[in-house]
Amino acid sequence: MNRRLALAVLPLLLAVTGCTSGTADDEPAPRPVAAERPSPFRDCATLSTAPTAATPGSTTPTPATPGSGTTEPASPGTTAPAAGGQALPELTLSCFTGGAPVELREVAGPAVINVWASWCPPCRKELPAFQRLSERAAGQLQVVGVNSRDSRSGAQSIGEDFGVRFPMLTDQGEAVQRELKRNAIPLTLFVAADGQVRHIDVSGALDDAKLTKLVRQHLGLAVPA
To answer: Could you tell me where the Low complexity compositional bias lies (predicted)?
Structure first.
């Protein structure tokens, strides 16, 4: 009797042991991890390098902003930028593409830094103009984005949909806005070659003409139309 009882109980003991053993055969298969989409934005490694044409000396004429009726030289030295200003905030921000963090004060001017988020309608409206500025003023100034309090997927989608490719920093804690004592975006900083912020624009969505005017007024640069 005891032998028959032992044989009857043994399968039950084995079944219980198998449920708690954690063997690979009994574990659920791991869920596949979705591949991360390539970043539409450029790397931030060159942000500390000044634009190649940031030194005055060129006198090549270029058409003025439509409607002005004049032509303007493309030389960065044609108009003296406003004096004074303030230093960039002493902050360390991550690059959207990864890699080493970026010291904001080490971003080499002349530069135009745009703070934005995908959930901000005027930000979305003006981003294509900043991309065009980065192309029109290539070699004269840097265009840099700071994605503020946003989801990575939201920023990624905007970059892909609007063809935004200039380098992008991330600021999920709104540190830039806090340091500048500004609570609204879009927010655009015009940074001169000496690293001083000459102008902070909070007027709303900027277009090509407004950007051209502000760059000339505050940075002394006449960018091609």
So the answer is: 45-85
